[in-house]
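Working notes for the structural subgroup meeting. M.R. asked for a predicted model of this chain before we commit to crystallization trials. I am recording the input and output together here so anyone reviewing the notebook later can reproduce the run.

Input as submitted:
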Amino acid sequence: MTSDISTVIPDRRDWATAFKALRRLLADANDTQQVFRIMRALNAGTAKAGYLRLLRTADGGRIAYERVELAERFSDPAFVAQFGEGTVGAAYAEFLRMTGYSATGLAEVSKIDGVDLNVRHPYLWYGRRMRDTHDIWHILTGYRADEPLGELCLVAFSYAQTHGLGWAFIAVGGALKSLRVRGGEQVRRAIREGYRRGKNAAWLPGEDYERLLAEPLDAAQARLNIPDPTAYRMARESVGRAAVRADGTMPVTFS
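Returned structure, recorded in token form:
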């Protein structure tokens, strides 16, 4: 695997790779590796900007100095099991149980094209931190991780939070594809709501996640200014009358 820093942290955008990956992602929403290809192709400078902003927050210097690898922490069953009922951590434990997802699983999926994301560099550590907290953002925002609509809304939220162009690229691609879906206007409204919620919320990359997991979920959402996703719920209802499976999930692709 390559560890050349200019390859791991590109300093220019690669639109050809991004378009190719987006086509594959829209054809198969479960192909998560394409998300990481899009991020690396279009998010040039985002990790650096985010890391420097983290250092300017009240706890950011300490968080960066400690350099905790959250994938390791979140994959420790004893760590995840310690949080009381109603907390963010308890919701995360239930999320892992219901979906079968894991922080280490997401980390494995992110290993693409021979690029070593474990290089000891502050910007790469910050990038791993963003990757490893993605599912926590699902919990905080109320966007389901097992359906395209929830992911599209979260990528719009993530663009507002990080200004990473890759997130916007995926959101716009999904919105355009929704033009062919019954109830597509509701889908696009939900995506726009995701962006607005991300813009109005507190800056989540600056959170101390170990502390956050111990906080009651409703209190954390109130503190972070993350209200209920009403347009998203309406879109699920609109599209879901015909498309939501018996287990409550939506199909993996819009057709």
